[in-house]
Structures are given as C-alpha cells and as structure tokens.
Amino acid sequence: MGWSIHHPVGLIYYSPMLSHKGYTLVSSNTADFAVLVDMEGRICHRWEYHGGIAYGKVLLNGNLLIRTSPDPDYEETRGLGGGSASLVELDWDSVKVWEYDDPALHHDYERLLNGNTIYLRWEPMPADLSARVRGGYRTPEDPINVLGDTIREVSPDGETLAEWRTWENLSIEDDVICPLEGRREWTHANALSSTRDGDFLVSYRQTDTVAIFSRETGEATWKWGPGEISHQHNATQLPGGNIMIFDNHTHARGGGRGSRIIEVNQESGEIEWTYEGRPPVSFYSSYISGADRFPNGNTLICEGAHGRVFEITQDGDIVWEYINPFFAPDREGRNPSNATFRAHRYPPDFPGFTDRDLDPTRYANLNRTLGLM
C-alpha cells in the first residue's frame, strides 16, 4: 500500500451484501490495548494491559489471550522481532486471570480445546550444530549457539507437558538461511497452528519454509517453500486441507511484485489460488501480516506493516477495508506506527460474545473522535 501521512484511517469501504459479518480484533504492535470493531468500523469493546498487547486472540469464553511486550532485561533475544515476556489471559473487563512467563517465547501461540497452550520459543542450539548451519551473512558478533525454534505445551497451571525441538528435525542441507539475513537464528518461526490431525504447522521466515511436524514423533512430515515463497507469515490449514500462506515476498528474487496470499495443495505442492494487489505493488508488507478464510469463501487480510485490514471475495474484490487508526511509539519511544501483527474477525454468534455488551455507544466519545459517530 502506498503510504501518506494524510491518508484516511478507520473504515474505508464496506459492502454489506458481499462481506462476512462479525467483529474484527485489531491491536497495534506496541500499544497497551486491543479493540473489537464492528462492520462500520466502530469500537464495540476494548481491552487494556499495561504490559503491552503485541498480539491477541479472543477465546471461546470471551477472554483475550495475548502476547505481551518483550522483556527489556532479557539479553539473549534482545532486538529480535516477535519476542514477548509473557502470555496473559484477560477477562472481558481486562482483569488478568492467567499468566505464563517465558522471556524466550515469541510470535505465535494457540489455546487448545483441552485448556493447554502451545507456543513458540527460542532455544540455543548446540555449538557443533550451530557451526554447520548454512547461509546468512557472517559477522564477528555471530553467537556460538545459534537460536533454534521449539514448540512447548503448558498446562493451565503452568506445568511444561511436552516440548518439540523442531531444529532437531530439520535439514542442514535443505534449510538454508536467506543470504540477506543474519545468523543469530536458524529459522525464525513466525506462525504456529494445529492441523486437522492435531500436528503442528509452522512457518519459518529465515529459510522460506512452511512445515508440518508430527505431534507424536516430532518429525517433519511435510515441507514446502524455498524458491516459491519469500519470508512468509501466518501459514494455516484450510478445512479442505490446503495450506494458506501470507507470502510477504521480502528478499524475493526479482522483487518489486508486492505481497500475495496463496493456497497450496499439500499433495501436489501446486499453488491453487492466489491473491495479489491490482496492480501488484499496491499490496505489500515487508514483515508481520496474516490472512484468515471465512466460511463464505472470503478472506480477511492483514497488511501488517501499514495497519491495513481488508476483506476480499474469492475473485479478489475488496468488500471491506479498514486502516488501524491507533498509532503507538516503538520500544525506543520514537516513530509512532499503526503496524498490526495480525487481525481476526469473529462472527456475531461467536460463543465468547454470548451475553456480552457490544454496543458501540459505550465508546461514543472515542468513536466520535475517530469520526465514526
């Protein structure tokens, strides 16, 4: 998206006949609040947490599960994108009801139906394996122990139930770091979700790879991506089995095309559906971002770097468009940004909204300030 400090924010466009109705969760990367907005772009609910809300998901009980700001005193991962100090669950009134601390956690997590939580965390790899990792540019400051990605499952009381060291099941020959990236990390996982079979779907930015790991054995049962995608985010499995990916197209060979959303057939490895901007350069985010598929076939896209959230039909027509109006300073207190890690929309009959007040007049003053009432 072309950037101008004078472009409008909030709701840009809405086609009621073609869009998938619901409430969209939006938060700025460095803000201490998250909001639900209705189809008219009006704020209907707001959560606050002064430890920062880098990314949130509404749970089936109506609580908000968030990834917080990073721990400023944790040196091992300082400066790496996507880091957080804790996972925190807030009730509807922003009261903290659960917290799990781990300064090595990063990017993504999922609350399982059994109440357990899985999440990504960094872990130093052995020195001998670190030295054998291929690719990336080298500097005198390169660590002896390169960081790998681990999946950890914890119980509601914070007990570690299982860990899967995904770096133990990757390939030195095949999983090569992009030559424009450093060597503090091998893979830089940025997405984690469960598959239909209960296995783990993971996206690796550094190596342009999406992979499925067996929950039972930890082995990589499917890998795809190098030469096809570049620094992608938010891989998810669709109900039919295809894998949907936000292909940022950062550092791609012959770049300048813009980002895209693709569906990949797991069996054939063929791309069966693609969305690009019209023209392609009009849709681009160099980092973060994501996409969700709705039951009606529409797709909600978060063009994260610019805080743009929009819904498209299967034919690529935009039927809802919103620009995050909330700008927050970066961690150094400079450069206010509305960058949005991901956005999600929940239907009106979502269980977590039962008996909840989603009347936008509760936030009339704020909505008026934004020109929405």
What does this structure look like?
- The relative contact order is 0.17.
- Strand 22 and strand 23 form a beta hairpin.
- Helix content is 3%, strand content 36%.
- The longest helix has 6 residues, at 127-132.
- It is mainly beta.
The major sheet is characterized as: 5 strands, antiparallel
Which structural class matches the secondary elements?
mainly beta
* Helix-strand topology string: EEEEEEEEEEHEEEEEEEEEEEEEEEH
Overall 3D geometry?
Answer: globular
Uncertain runs are none
Strand order of the largest sheet: 1-24-23-22-21
**What percent strand?**
35-45%
Helix % is under 10%
**Count of DSSP E strands?**
25
State the end-to-end CA separation: 27 Å
Number of helices: 2
**C-alpha Rg, in Å?**
20 Å
Q: In a nutshell, what does this entry contain?
A:
By secondary structure, this protein is mainly beta.
